Structures are given as C-alpha cells and as structure tokens.
Amino acid sequence: MFFAIEEFIALGQTQSFSKAAKRLGVSASHISRRVNALEEKLGVRLVHRTTRVVRLTDAGHDYFQKCADISDEMEEANASLISDAAELEGRIKVSAAGDYAERFVSPALARFGLLHPKLRIEMDFNPRNINLIDDGFDFAVRYGHLSDSSLVARKLTERKLVAAASPAYLKQHGEPTHPSELSKHRCIISMNDTWRFEEGGKEFSVRVPAVWQSNSATSLVTSAVTGAGICYLPETTLQQAIENQSLQPILKPFCFSAIPTWLVYPSKRFLPLRVRAAMDYLITSTAS
Questions:
Q1: Would you indicate the residue range of the signal peptide (predicted)?
Q2: What is the 8-class DSSP label of residue 144?
C-alpha cells in the first residue's frame, strides 16, 4: 500500500479520526499525522478539519474514490490468489434478524459450512442495533437505508414490499385505493409506524395507526391472516399466505419494488479469507 493511503481510506470511510483509528488499531494522532504528511507530499488539501467534523474536500473526495477502488482491486487479487490453496477454518460470527435471514441466509451459511467442515458458524438473531467491532461480529445482515457510514456494505439482494390483508378484513373494512387512506385502517407493524411508498417515481411516507406490533415476521403474518389488520412486508415473507389466498395484496401500484438487503462489516483490512468466502458464497447463492 502506498504511503498513508490506508489511513486516508479509513478516514474517508468513517469521517472521523477516532473511528478510523479504532478500525486500524492505532491512535487518532497517528491517523492525523499520516494524513497531514500525505497532504504535504501531494501538495493538496484533502480534508477539512474542525473540532467536531471531518469532511473531505472536493479533491479529497475524488482521491478517496480512486484510492478505494484500487484498494478493493488489490484485496480481491490477494484473495483470489490464495483462495484455491487455503483451507477454511475458524469461527465466523454473524448478526442477523428477520424472516429473510432465517429462511435464506441461515440455510445458505449452513450449506457453506458443509463445504468447509473446519468452520464454526455462529448466528445471533437479534433486532437490536449491535456494534460489530465491540460485540465481535464478522458481518451482519441489514435492510433498507444504511445510516452507519463507518461500515463497508455489499448488496446481497433486493426484495419487493407488499401490502396485504385477509379477505375477511377487507370485506369488513373495505380495501384502500391509496396509501393516504391507511389512516382510517388498522395496521400491523414491525419496527415503526411510518410506511414508505412510491408514486410517479417519487417516494412518500404515511404514518399508520398500529394495532399490532412485533419483531417476529411469523407473528405479523399470522395476525394479518386472522384479520387483525393490514401488513406491509417483503414479498418473500408473505408469499405462502398470498398463494393459499389467506392474504390478498392491495395498493400494488404504490408498494416499493426494490428494498435492498446488505452484508455489512467493519473493514476490509485483515478481513479473514473465511469471512470473505462466506460473504461471496451468500451473494452468489442468492443471485442464482
């Protein structure tokens, strides 16, 4: 790696000297000195610094993108060089939550484990927002918009959202023709009471009255099937209930067509081959 590029990439990814230092296992002053020296060597200011905020300059942003691309290519080249000869062993610890992780990610990792018998794979199904580094996780499965810019993300898949209710509920309460009408209905929610829809290429949000809330996908589907209200969940979660006509899709023109699912992890630096191979396997298996 060229002089101070590793420190600069970590700073660009985290937008924080302390977070970059934690990622690389060094002091914040070390990161600051190395980036300062890099700026002096290049003769260009790469970072705007204040007491609380670190922001890349326009030149710094362009340089960061180029450096990150080169770093990614080097990591992939190194991994491909040794992957055929290496025997995967050790522990892989994964944080996940939700129906998709249970139905698709967990079985895929189990199949990956069969291919590499010396691996020990641990999955923690917990909806809380854990700290990957502090809690010792190698990677996590996350959904939708990612708010933590300090994490590296790889897209696993995209899923369509579906609004649905039981035929009995729709017969009693009527079928809404626009998401704005949901304020007059009973709704079943998982994480929050604000649902996002799209219309004419634009996103909009609707706050819905919740009569049932749970972090269990099975519970949400079951309550919808019993007629408790309207749910808004990934198509893969509702597929069986829709196929056996226990639930009926509604508001089809407005439902989100592509909600991303991500694999997120703290850093590419010293990423164990077993972890990289597991993530590669998950992405390949979900794409097939």
A1: none
A2: S
**94 and 150 share a domain?**
yes
User: Can you tell me the distance from the alpha carbon of 151 to that of 13, in angstroms, rounded to the nearest whole number?
Assistant: 8
User: Quick one: tokens of 146?
Assistant: 């990612």
Q: What is the Cα–Cα distance from 45 to 148, expressed in whole angstroms? A: 26
Whether residues 221 and 166 fall in one domain: yes
What is the spatial distance between Cα 159 and Cα 154, in angstroms, rounded to a whole number? 15
Are both 146 and 278 inside the same structural domain? Answer: yes
Q: Is 182 in a helix, a strand, or coil?
A: helix
Q: Is residue 253 located within the same domain as residue 264?
A: no
pLDDT tens for 45-76 read: 999 887 666 888 989 888 988 887 777 677 66
Cβ contact 23:34 at 8 Å: no
Token pair, residue 94, equals: 């994964």
Please say whether the beta carbons of 153 and 264 come within 8 A.
yes
Q: Cα dihedral sign for 266, 268, 271, 274?
A: positive
Local confidence band at 268 (pLDDT 50, 70, 90 cut-offs): low
95 and 147 belong to one structural domain: yes
In percent, the amount of the chain with pLDDT more than 90 equals 45
User: How far, in Å, CA of 57 to CA of 91, rounded?
Assistant: 40
Given its phi and psi angles, is residue 13 left (phi above 0), alpha (psi -120 to 50 degrees) or beta? alpha
Q: Which residues lie closer than 8 Å to 189 by C-beta, 6 or more apart? A: 208, 210, 212, 213, 232
Strand (E) or helix (H) holding 188: strand 187-189
CA 226 vs CA 169, 212, 231: distances in Å: 8, 12, 12
Q: Within this chain, do residues 209 and 280 fall inside the same structural domain, yes or no?
A: no
